[in-house]
Every structure is written in C-alpha cells, then in structure tokens.
Amino acid sequence: MIKIRISQLYKDLARSIEGLKKDQSRIEDARQIVEDALASNEAFYGINTGFGILATKKISGDKLQKLQRNLILSHSVGTGELIPKEICRLMLQLKIHALGLGYSGISSETFNRLILMLDKDLIPAIPKKGSVGASGDLAPLAHMSLPLLGYGSFWNEEGTDIIPASGVLSENGIEPIELKAKDGLSLINGTQLMAAYGSWLLHKSLQLLDVADLLGAMSLEALQGSIRPFDERVHHIRPHKGQIRVAENIRTLLKDSQILESHRNCGKVQDPYCLRCIPQVHGASRNAIAHCIEVFETEINSVTDNPLVFENGDIISGGNFHGQPLALGLDYAAIAIAELGSISERRTYLLLEGHDGLPELLMEETGINSGFMIPQYTAAALVSENKVLCHPSSVDSIPTSLGQEDHVSMGSIGAIKLYDIFKNVEHILAIELFTAAQALDFRSPLKPGTGVDAAHTYIREQIPHAKEDHYFRDEISLAVDLLSDPQLLRQAGLV
Fold first, then answer.
1. Which residues form the catalytic set?
2. Element containing residue 458 per DSSP (H, E)
3. Boundaries of every domain in the chain
4. Is-above-0.85 flag for pTM?
5. Can you say how many angstroms the Cα of residue 396 is from the centroid of all Cα atoms in its chain?
6. Mean pLDDT of 158-163
7. Any idea which fold 197-492 has?
C-alpha cells in the first residue's frame, strides 16, 4: 500500500485508491476470514453480536444484514452545520484507504460502492456534531454511509447545497445495497472525521507557515526593523529546527534590502518582540505542526476499525478507534496556529502607530479617513476569539454506552475548533498582508529585500494602494485568497 503523506495528501490518496481498484486481494482475504468465522457459529463482536454495551447479545444468522442496516440508521444522529464538501470527500477517501489495508473484513460489494461514489463525485453530506471521538467517529461516519442504503443526502457539484441521495442514485441508475455481516461496523468504526479535518488543516498549514514568515519580513521592512536578531549564529546556539528555518527564511527575504541599508546606523538597540522574536515564535509553531504531521501521518496510514481481522484467522477486539492521539494533536495544532495570528496582530498594530516616518493609520489624510484603524479591530477580535477556542477538548470525557465506553477523546470537537481557529488566523494574516503592503508603499523609492519586493509587487497587482476609506472587506477577501496562492511564495523565493 502507498504511504499517505500530508505534504502530498491528495496525490497520495489518489494513487492509493487507483491501486485498490486494480488489486483487492487483501480485502478479499480478510473477508474470507469473516465468512469462515460466521460459519464457525462462535460469537465475534459486531459480526454476530450487538454493539457497545450490547456486545453480549448474540444475533442469529438470518438477522445479520438487518443488524448492520440498523447500525447505520441508529447511529445517523449527527447535528449542527454540515462539514464542508472538501472535507467530506477527504473522509470518504481516508475511509477507502483504511479499509484497503485489509484488516477490516468488509465485503467487496460495499467497498466498491464507496469507490463508485467517489468516482462519480457523490459526496455524502455529513453533520459536524455528534462524535465523542472514541469507538470511532460513529455518527459522522454513519451519515457518510447512509447513501449506500438509499438514505441521507449528497452535496451538489458546487458544494453549496444538498440533494436527497435516493433521487441522485436513481438518476445514476444505482440501486441501494444490502450490507453484509461486519460491513456496517467497518464503515463507522474509525477516526476519519478527526483525521480528515486534521490532515486537511495541516496540509494547508504548510503554506501558511511560510506566508507568516513572509508577512513578518514585510512588516519588519516597513517598520525599519533590524536584521541582526536573524543572524545565523544566534539560532545555532539554540538550534530548534523551526527557529533556524524561520531565521533563514527572513534572511532570504531581506537580501539586498535598500531599506535595511538606509537605517543601518540609526542607533536603535532593539525592536519589539513581535519583530525581534519572529524566529522563536513562528519557529515554535513550526515545530508543533511538524509533530502533529507525524501523528496524523501515522494515523491515516493505520487501521482504526474494531474488531480487527488478521491474516492467520484471528479476529481481535481492541481500541484502535480511540481518538486520543489525534485529540491531543488537534489541541496542540490549535495553539500553534493561533499563536501565528496572535503575533501577526501585534505587528499590524505597530504598523498603524506612525513609527519612523509612516503616517498614523497608514493614510495621509486622517480624521475624515479612519485609515487602517478598523481592520486591526477585526484582527484583535479574532485573536481574542481564538484564545477561547484554544481551550483543549482532549481534557474532557463523558462516559457513553452505559459505561462500556467510559473514556472518550472528544477529538472531533477539537477538530472542528481547529478549523474555526485556522479560518480566523487566515483573516488575521490577511489583514497584516494588506496593512504591511500599504506601509511598504510609504518607504518608496527605497526597495525592501528582493523576496519582500517581489511579493509586494505581486500583492499590488491584486490589491491597490488605499488613498482613502473604502469597502475594506473586499480587500480582506482578496488577501485571504492570496494566502493560499502558491505564486505568492514563488515570487518571494520561498519555494
């Protein structure tokens, strides 16, 4: 099987699923073990017994299909807003990849129906809330599986609305299927909601980390900050990998800066921490994200089903569905991402104070114009909201299943909070982006470092200099789009 890496998330998943279309021998072998177990008439959890606290109740052979069907229907109790289509698709892809590892015993018919749904872009609509992050993401994965039975809904092509699954299946000439023994349990046991949210956000964070360095360099130039704190020697005697990387990025971005040369002997001793400590703060977030990526890469290449089917015929009940590794990682990533926003807002504030020749609020005629005052309010509000959202979900646990499942991870709540934090930080950084670009305009004709200069030019092609108050929200939206634009980092020379 292909190892899925966060940096190549979508390419690796596509390759994995294409491989599974051609070779399903491991799935078929595991399924045969399940069939043999059924023939033995012994009790196997979830295959011919009830679930959770009902595990001691043996189910007769003529009711096994109904058992699996009831499992999906009874667990489809999610609530709240719907998960974005892109993450729903990723949940489906990760479920296919995990089942394809060959330790679940799912039937080929059910497995191939999942692949058919993915191929036809029939992406189930899944509510956000209802998982406690143990026994798998039961409710969300049950909603993902509902269309197999003809229930539930699919996203439309644009991901803006949902359509009843029954009608979509009929239009495509697809009949609902009957789940076989173990199929339903294999579908809903697993950490794919937590894993999809985390993988998606960690994948996006790889660009965000570099963009944060770029914005820090832009603000440093605009504020005539010192390059001395980024000296290579400083960081090699405290050699955290992230810190070293950030300092290197800043030095690259500031190369050949005319602005730096213009104030080299200005007598300023030290800059505020939000400039001077960019390597230490951004670097710590980089190290945290690197750790979380390691956790999530392990998870998305793992089997989180229960019970597990092994090649020698053993069927073992365990706890690989428990989301604790992800729950801790999601909380850690939330703090790391939030801190990028926190220090960014401080730089935005400094840019407005009128330091070293910059006009207050970054406009020439203030009073009639509020300038860039209020975007900083928005950044401050989002930073404050993130402080609340960063309270860890993983420290909580409420017993379920009449005490059988007496410790749960709450990782699904951490995943949803991380998404909200990430979106907030995108807007905080977007505000620094167009604020720093505005400030740099006032340093002309002096040029910043080559990397900053190229990025600034590219930004100005999308967002013009602001001479008076206007509808800033459009510029924030454009700036948010720029954060995920690979061309911005290419222009800056960071990729």
1. 45
2. helix 450-462
3. 6-190, 197-492
4. yes
5. 22
6. 98
7. Fumarase C; Chain A, domain 2 (1.20.200)
Phi, psi (degrees; rounded to nearest 5) at 256: 65, 35
DSSP labels, 253-297: HTTT-HHHHHTTTS------HHHHTHHHHHHHHHHHHHHHHHHHH
DSSP 174-207: ----PPPTTHHHHHHSS-HHHHHHHHHHHHHHHH
The CATH architecture annotation of domain 6-190 reads: Orthogonal Bundle (1.10)
Please tell me the predicted confidence (pLDDT) of residue 267: 65
For the chain, the first-to-last Cα distance in angstroms comes to 29
Tens of pLDDT, residues 162-187: 999 999 999 999 999 999 999 999 99
Task: Please list the alpha-helical segments (H only) found in 301-410.
Answer: 324-352, 373-389
Mean pLDDT of 33-58: 89
CB-based contact 313:36 (threshold 8 Å): yes
Q: CA-to-CA distance for 17 and 423, rounded, in angstroms?
A: 30
Q: Among candidates 382, 359, 356, which has minimal Cα distance to 371?
A: 359
What tokens appear for 349 in the block? 């504030």
| Angle value at C-alpha 92, between 390 and 97, nearest 5 degrees | 100
Q: Kindly state the tokens that stand for 23.
A: 């070779």
pLDDT tens for 316-354 read: 999 999 999 999 999 999 999 999 999 999 999 999 999
